[in-house]
Design goal:
The structure is a homodimer. The first copy, chain A, has helices at about 60-70, 80-90, and strands spanning about 10, 20, 25-30, 30-40, 40-45, 50-55, 70-75, 105, 115, 120-130, 135-145, 150, 155, 165-170, 175-180. With about 190 residues, chain A is mainly β. Chain A has a 7-stranded antiparallel sheet. Chain A has a 3-stranded antiparallel sheet with strand order 2-14-15, with no helix packed on it.
């Protein structure tokens, strides 16, 4: 790409265009498993492994998560796209979503995990940072579960990993595409301009 | 997928397998633009738009970001994969990375942005949360820049958006793939089990 061909403009976008991983958060609310779809989450720290989730205060899930201090993050496969979107469209205040998945538990008895998902991250809530419209939940990762078919020599078998992303702000959902390059390696053949 | 075919195992993974967007962070350090590649960032809040970035305290960038209270997040295209990896492999303490890109500035004079990137997010640092090994920088988005070719009717033209993701923990980089489904819509045709 020639730089002179680039014509930068102020977009005024409040939410920048970003490809974000899609995830189903699981928590107990009013004594029952509930699930909602999120894209605002990422790692915060390596050791101990901490992960942060920003969730609108309007969500039905937030009080349950605060009460039980536990949650799960479950990575859906592309064949789960309809149900993933469904649990994001409907509030647990109006719809019982506890029957849509096969649920299992790890050490934390109030972090319901979804069997059909390829990766399950079991988290203990360790802190909350409050913003005006969102709660930022900080969880310590207690365990990561996966299916044997996604594991090869004790490592994730990334070629079989069939998750999808959501383009913020309005979608659509996109599949993960083709292999591009090795991370922490392809840059070794880059020739600096200076 | 039949649920009985799923064989869940504890993986012991400290960092869960996650497809994360790749981004080049720009900041001034010791009076000069510096860039490093990150994958630990996401939105925290909508209005005002806040974005969080977790960065190892070992990074050369952190003191500069704290001093100047400004940074940028720049989304590289797939043809930038080599240079993106390169700026992640080398510390600004040892290598001058200021010449690798065409740089432009917006309102904040210490948030260098990369012309070649498809989306540029200009951020004012508003808060820092310290963890043991990482600084969690909270930035308010001042403006989002893009190229006219990625915009259609004042909206992002997502079909042309050519970013890539990194599979945590070790890569590789993957392209964004095919269209999967409309977000906030495909779930309306889901038939609940209950």
């Amino acid at each position: 790409m020639k730089v002179e061909e680039i014509s930068k403009v102020k977009t005024g976008w409040k939410l920048p265009l970003l490809p974000l991983p899609v995830c189903i958060l699981g928590a107990h609310v009013n004594g029952k498993p509930n699930f909602n779809t999120i894209i605002w989450f990422n790692m915060l720290h390596d050791n101990p492994p901490l992960i942060g989730v920003a969730m609108s205060k309007k969500h039905y899930t937030n009080p349950g998560l605060k009460e039980n201090r536990a949650f799960s993050l479950n990575i859906p496969t592309t064949e789960m796209v309809k149900v993933t979107d469904y649990v994001g469209l409907h509030s647990g205040a109006k719809v019982d979503k506890s029957k849509e998945f096969e649920i299992f538990y790890g050490e934390l008895k109030t972090a319901p995990m979804i069997k059909e998902c390829s990766v399950n991250i079991e988290c203990k809530l360790v802190n909350i940072k409050e913003f005006k419209n969102t709660d930022f939940f900080i969880g310590e990762i207690i365990e990561v579960y996966s299916d044997e078919k996604y594991i090869k020599n004790n490592r994730p078998d990334v070629k079989k990993f069939d998750s999808f992303i959501c383009l913020q702000p309005n979608g659509p959902y996109w599949k993960i595409g083709d292999y591009l390059a090795e991370a922490y390696e392809v840059g070794t053949s880059y020739k600096p301009k200076k």
